[in-house]
Design a protein that fits this description.
Elements (H helix, E strand, L loop, with lengths): L2 H9 L4 H4 L8 H15 L9 H19 L1 H10 L7 H4 L4 H8 L5 H11 L3 H13 L4 H7 L8 H13 L7 H4 L3 H25 L5 H10 L2 H18 L18
Length: 260
């Protein structure tokens, strides 16, 4: 079975851009970030024991997809004819895909995230991300706060100010759900965020966690399944954005999918 057929079986699509969740017109950096983000979700190290074999297969497939789309000639062939060169050296050689992945991307720690947060907050990049999230979620502040990187309930007044200024200047539309949001809904969101913050800190103290990557994994594994997925998704976004030292990208909202 060829690469496209394998992708169809594993990911439900034979479209290589869709597998990496990027636009057909994506730049090399966007493709790299897409590969990083998606591969983090299926990385064998994060899989449950009974899913490790499947995760390994998916992880290897993603590596091959990235090889095709990151190679100028291979990508041109795929774009023009919708096929891949299965006999190419990159696809036919017996490669250690995990080792290849580690050559491309560094591991990150809690300290890395904290350092990134200091640079990101108040930057032009954050400004663009907030506006994009506002439009993506049609003014739903709850979803905006969950979407933008490195924010918690204490940032909400600042985020609201950014959005209001963008509305006043005509950069974004004035969605009713944002403009008319009730104080009750704002306070409920704040209480929920405070409770989650206390829970996270308590868990960290109970486990005696520090700033290493193993500590980060321990924190993830200590939470219930649903919360683990939320943390995994956040970490994946941070690694995709911070781990490759990219200056672009950033919001946690999914990019629009492109047709093959």
């Amino acid at each position: 079975m060829g690469l496209l057929e394998q992708c169809e079986a594993a990911f439900g699509t034979a479209g290589l851009y869709q597998v990496l969740d990027v636009r057909r017109e994506a730049s090399g950096d966007e493709i790299r970030r897409g590969y990083h983000r998606v591969s983090l979700r299926v990385h064998p190290d994060r899989a449950a024991p009974d899913r490790k074999e499947e995760a390994t297969r998916h992880f290897q497939l993603l590596g091959k997809v990235y090889v095709v789309l990151s190679d100028q000639d291979q990508r041109a062939l795929y774009d023009e004819q919708g096929i891949v060169d299965e006999e190419s050296e990159a696809l036919s050689q017996d490669r250690n895909w995990e080792e290849y992945w580690r050559l491309l991307f560094k591991k990150i720690t809690i300290k890395d995230i904290e350092d990134f947060e200091k640079k990101y907050k108040g930057s032009e990049e954050e400004l663009a991300d907030v506006k994009a999230a506002y439009e993506d979620f049609k003014g739903d502040m709850g979803q905006i706060m969950e979407s933008v990187l490195c924010v918690d309930y204490t940032d909400e007044p600042r985020i609201r100010k950014i959005i209001q200024e963008a509305i006043d200047s005509g950069e974004v539309p004035a969605y009713k759900v944002f403009v008319k949001e009730s104080k009750q809904k704002m306070n409920a969101r704040k209480r929920r965020a405070q409770e989650e913050a206390k829970e996270a800190e308590k868990t960290r103290e109970e486990l005696g966690l520090g700033d290493g990557e193993d500590d980060l994994k321990a924190l993830i594994q200590s939470r219930n399944k649903d919360r683990k997925q939320e943390i995994d998704d956040f970490l994946a976004q941070m690694e995709a954005k911070y781990g490759n030292n990219s200056k672009k990208g950033g919001k946690k909202t999914a990019p629009k999918k492109a047709k093959k």
